[in-house]
């Protein structure tokens, strides 16, 4: 699937903060989880040596260790003496979760995943159902953020960005505009992936965004063929920025975090619209057999329940809060770039992770065929 949004946020944070990597203890813990060093070495001077019980959050590396530790782990530890939340940056891909569960040697408690992956993993009996007697659905802005096999303490969006200098008569403001090559000439930019691209194509076909799913796959693929020869395709967040920065593309569908960077860097020459953005849930899953047991459900509940840490994560990494009480706490200068600000969210469509969980593999292969055909 190329670079994930999780990895992309880390890349952005490295650039913004001019730092990255993990400390020695964090690295040792990650190596221990992979069986590359002795577990005793990994926890030297750590929580287990002090008699604390560890819960392991698995992320995608770099400054996610710092962000998740400070804004998810620390509040939970303060409220739960004797429990220690540690970060593991192995990269919790669906394949790695599957291998760990099937081998019967689960060492991870909570994994940064996606809505579609949570459904696939759940259908394969590889992750636990979320206990909504512990995790509160009322702590999320929409039911799409509290799924059967995962819950989302953050969000992100795929938005339409454009070079305003190329459109003196008015910029594109919808996916229908994006597909209109007569009124809005120039090269388009899309991710080399079905997710969000097909959804945009469906809106370009005129389907009511409020009733977007199920997607008409055949019609969406035909729509994609209309612009394939006038489009370039990105595989990672940095690349999506560069296509627009250099003018190789005049408009594109990119992650909101990258759109923010471009808008600020170009003093507003490159802009973006939240209209018809694809708002997506940053889902965490619990592998079947997670050693933390019931405490893992409580950790996930804490991540959703506390709006203040979510706002701090928005400032730190660009991830949007999902707690309905968070929006009022976001400073004014960050609201423009918060995907779940009520004014911004109102203009968007929440991507249906369950539908994509059932259809992603087949449709992604079809999209790649169109792109390369």
TrEMBL record:
Keyword Secreted: no
InterPro entries: SBP (IPR006059), TAT_signal (IPR006311)
Keyword annotations from UniProtKB, A to Z: Signal
Name of protein: Extracellular solute-binding protein
């Amino acid at each position: 699937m190329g670079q994930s949004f999780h990895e992309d946020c880390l890349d952005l944070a490295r650039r913004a903060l001019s730092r990255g990597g993990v400390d020695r203890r964090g690295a040792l813990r990650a190596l221990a989880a992979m069986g590359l060093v002795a577990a005793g070495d990994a926890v030297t001077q750590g929580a287990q040596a002090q008699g604390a019980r560890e819960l392991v959050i698995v992320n995608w590396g770099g400054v996610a260790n710092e962000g998740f530790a400070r804004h998810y782990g620390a509040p939970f530890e303060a409220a739960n003496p004797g429990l220690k939340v540690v970060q593991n940056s192995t990269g919790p891909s669906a394949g790695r979760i599957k291998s760990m569960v099937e081998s019967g040697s689960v060492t991870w408690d909570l994994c940064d995943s996606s809505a579609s992956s949570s459904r696939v993993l759940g259908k394969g009996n590889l992750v636990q159902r979320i206990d909504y007697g512990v995790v509160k659905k009322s702590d999320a802005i929409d039911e799409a953020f509290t799924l059967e096999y995962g819950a989302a303490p953050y969000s992100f969006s795929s938005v339409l960005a454009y070079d305003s200098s190329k459109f003196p008569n008015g910029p594109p403001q919808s996916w229908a505009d994006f597909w209109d090559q007569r009124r809005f000439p120039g090269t388009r930019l899309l991710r080399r992936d079905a997710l969000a691209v097909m959804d945009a194509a469906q809106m370009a076909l005129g389907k009511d965004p409020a009733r977007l799913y199920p997607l008409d796959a055949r019609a969406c693929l035909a729509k994609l063929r209309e612009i394939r020869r006038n489009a370039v395709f990105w595989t990672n967040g940095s690349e999506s920025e560069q296509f627009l920065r250099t003018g190789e593309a005049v408009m594109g569908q990119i992650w909101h975090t990258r759109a923010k960077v471009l808008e600020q860097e170009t003093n507003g020459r490159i802009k973006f619209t939240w209209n018809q953005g694809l708002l997506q849930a940053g889902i965490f899953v619990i592998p079947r057999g997670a050693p933390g047991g019931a405490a893992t459900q409580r950790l996930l509940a804490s991540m959703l329940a506390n709006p203040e840490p979510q706002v701090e994560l928005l400032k730190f990494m660009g991830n949007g809060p999902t707690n309905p009480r968070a929006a009022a706490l976001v400073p004014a200068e960050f609201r423009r770039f918060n995907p779940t600000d009520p004014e911004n969210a109102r203009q968007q469509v929440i991507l249906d992770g369950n539908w994509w969980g059932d259809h992603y593999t087949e449709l992604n292969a079809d999209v790649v065929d169109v792109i390369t055909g």
